[in-house]
Structures are given as C-alpha cells and as structure tokens.
Amino acid sequence: MITEVSSAVAVALAVLLATAAALRFPPGRRPLRDPARQPLTPVETALLRGGVRGAVQTASVELYLVGSVEPAWRQALRRDPTKPPTGCSDVARALYRVLQGRLHPRRLERNDRVREATAALAGRLALDGLLLTCGRRLAAGAALLPVFAAAPVAASAGAGTPLGPLLLLGLLADAVALLLWPWTRRTGRGAALLAQLRGEQQGTRRPTEAEPARLLLHVALFGAPALREGLPRFTAESGMLSRPPREPMDRGGGGRSQEALTCGG
C-alpha cells in the first residue's frame, strides 16, 4: 500500500515540477536582436535587471543626458519644454510627457502612461524569452505550491508508519521547487544575457558624462552604484535613490495615488 502511494505521489510531483519547469523556462519565440553586438537597448536592459524601477531610472538618466530634464527643488525632476527628447526610448518619451511641474522619480513609476510603456517593453522581452509574462509567473507558482505541501503531508501522515521514502521524496521535491520558483520575472535566458552583458563591462574604465552612451549602459546594467559613481550630483538632487516626501509636491502627472498590485520584476 505504501509503495503504491509513493508511486502515485512521485508521478504527481513529477508532473507538477515538469509543468512548472516548462512555464519557468520558456523558449524564445525569436532570436535576440543583433546578438553579436548590443542585443538590448539600455532601457530594455534596465527593465531586465531591475523591473519598472530600473527602467524608469535609466529612462530618466537618458532624458537628463540629452538635456530634456534636470533636477528640481526638493529632490524631484522637471522637464525642459524647449528640449523635447528626440531619438529616445518609448519609456523616456512617456516620462517626459507626464512630467508636468516637479515630480519625484518614484511617483513617475506609478503613472499609468509610464506603466503602459514599461508593460509594452516587457511584452517584447517576453517574446524574446528573456522575461516571464505575468500569466506564466502566476501559473508556475500555482503549480509549485502543492509541491511544497508534499513533505509536511508525508510527515503528518507517517506518524507510526514507515514512510521514510515518501518523506524523502517530498523533501527532494521541495528542494527542486525552490530552484524553480519564479523569484523574479527573468528567465534562464534573460539571466544569462544579463550576466554576459555585465561581464563585458566589468574591468573597463568607468564612464563619465563625456561618454553618455557608455554611461547610460552602465546605469542600465548596475543601477544604484553606477548612478552614485557616474552621476552623483544628478542622483542626489533629483532624489533618484530616495523615497518621495510624505507631502505631495506637485499634483501633475496623472498617476495613481497608490501602488497597484502587479507582477513587476
């Protein structure tokens, strides 16, 4: 009887783990763009690394480097209406459009138009097999949740009975489920590409504002450390890495007042 139960549990766990693995590591639907050179734009790279916040930070730097925005009073950003962005990313153009008056960078993350721009970008990365869609991430989690219950159920059911193999099977399945759990939206392919791009930049000379393209890529890849090293004044004065003040500075921008529940990575 115990052998039959163990076999049934093993089959069920194998099916759940295989389903989660297929959801967690989808194949890319198309080859990476220009894989021999720069496969992603800086804002795409930042979204892959740091989700919406990373993309907004990098897009803000993109606007600053072309003169379209500048730091404002009390740690905020404001746009220069005489210098609209040309040739910038969709996320950067969305930021520029919603910057009415002064806004803290964190408030920009919550704006509907900015969210739409980053969601469209995430969709393209999902087609490349670099990010999980929200549906895939939730489905993978749903397939793995019953697996985590296997060991406790076996332990409770095994009181006074020799269920050692079943308990061992449950613990092993739990370990595999932890490895497969979608902690971030990055797929294996996305994580490998990000590691490759970071490896190519490490050991090189730190970029400055005199090299805007290299500096923007550095910020996209490394986030806060690159901001502090490459753009210390802009980072401090714009509040790029700080929390927004409690009281509203400006009511422009049209964003939602509270963070929405999303599957952002």
TrEMBL record:
The keyword Nucleotidyltransferase does not apply. It comes from the Bacteria. The chain crosses the membrane at residues 6-25, 138-157, 163-181. Residues 235-265 are annotated as: Disordered. NCBIfam families: near_uncomplex (TIGR04222). This is TIGR04222 domain-containing membrane protein. The keyword Ribonucleoprotein does not apply. Keywords: Membrane, Transmembrane, Transmembrane helix.
